[in-house]
């Protein structure tokens, strides 16, 4: 076997090991999606998920009745997401990957945010979770096909900016480096402090919890106040 054959072999083995490791989780998700296509089950699950919400901050997961959950495209999307999650380089307490992003538009931030005094917010727009030529969702506000070039992605990000004006937004590069490093697909929340990941949210949509993020920030603000008071007392 020559050298390139060996490399090829190692790659194939690595891929096979990865597939084996991800298989149980994937099969579970596939069964869930299949079950969710029975409307009575779907309504019950969505209701349960709604009840579990910690507060009004977390957007409820909404799926209209006529959206199919168990399709070739949905399985591909779930597999893709689980693989990204497994291979991501961002881990709690470790250095935050400094991936390349592209600025969408410079805009003066005028929205007064609850935590603007202690944190800067940045939206990194990644690949579409529900592209119109993939796992289609009629619940999405816009029907956007898969981005084929950076211009496609920037155009779609502009649409998103109109929904949340004043936010700081960048887009992932076309290598999808941020998505890969942070296991961001479908959506995910992070807090980075001093270049370290200090909060890592779960994989969206189920794990996407703004309430959790707020909780972390509240706690942080409290600690800041305490340390400031301590300094003043000296
Ligand atoms: C990045 O994601 C886009 C979909 O938005 C896809 O078309 C492209 O092939 C991906 N790039 C790489 C290097 O995988």
Provide a descriptive summary of the structure in words.
- By secondary structure, the protein is mainly alpha-helical.
- It has a single domain (3-233), classed as Glutaredoxin, CATH 3.40.30.10.
- Helix content is 46%, strand content 8%.
- The strands form two sheets. The protein has a three-stranded mixed β-sheet. A two-stranded antiparallel sheet has the order 4-5.
- The longest helix has 34 residues, at 3-36.
- It is globular.
- Bound molecules: 2-acetamido-2-deoxy-beta-D-glucopyranose.
- Residues 127, 146-147, 174-176 line the site of 2-acetamido-2-deoxy-beta-D-glucopyranose.
- Belongs to the iodothyronine deiodinase family.
- Keywords: Membrane, Oxidoreductase, Selenocysteine, Thyroid hormones biosynthesis, Transmembrane, Transmembrane helix.
- Responsible for the deiodination of T4 (3,5,3',5'-tetraiodothyronine).
User: Approximately what portion of the residues adopt beta-strand conformation?
Assistant: 5-15%
Largest sheet: 3 strands, mixed
Give the helix level as a range of percent: 40-55%
CATH structural fold name = Glutaredoxin
Total beta-strand segments: 5
CATH superfamily (homologous) name? Glutaredoxin
Cα-atom radius of gyration: 20 Å
Order of helices and strands: HHHEEHEHEEH
Please report the distance between the alpha carbons of the first and last residues.
Answer: 72 Å
Strand order of the largest sheet: 1-3-2
- The total of helices stands at 6
Secondary-structure-based class equals: mainly alpha
């Amino acid at each position: 076997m020559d050298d390139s054959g060996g490399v090829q072999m190692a790659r194939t083995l690595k891929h096979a090991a990865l597939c084996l490791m991800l298989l149980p989780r994937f099969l579970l998700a596939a069964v869930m999606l299949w079950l969710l296509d029975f409307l009575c089950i779907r309504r019950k699950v969505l209701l349960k998920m709604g009840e579990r919400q910690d507060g009004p901050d977390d957007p409820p997961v909404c799926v209209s009745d006529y959206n199919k959950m168990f399709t070739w495209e949905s399985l591909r999307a779930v597999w893709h997401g689980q693989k990204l999650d497994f291979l991501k380089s961002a881990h709690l307490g470790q250095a935050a990957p400094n991936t390349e992003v592209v600025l969408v538009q410079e805009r003066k931030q005028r929205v007064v945010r609850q935590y603007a005094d202690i944190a800067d917010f940045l939206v990194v727009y990644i690949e579409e979770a529900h592209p119109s030529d993939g796992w289609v969702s009629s619940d999405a506000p816009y029907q956007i096909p898969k981005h084929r070039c950076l211009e496609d992605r920037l155009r779609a990000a502009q649409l998103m900016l109109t929904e949340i004006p004043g936010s700081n937004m960048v887009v992932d590069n076309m290598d999808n480096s941020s998505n890969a490093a942070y296991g961001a697909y479908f959506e995910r929340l992070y807090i980075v402090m001093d270049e370290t990941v200090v909060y890592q949210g779960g994989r969206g949509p189920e794990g996407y919890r703004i309430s959790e993020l707020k909780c972390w920030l509240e706690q942080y603000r409290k600690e800041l106040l305490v340390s400031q008071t301590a300094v003043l007392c000296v």
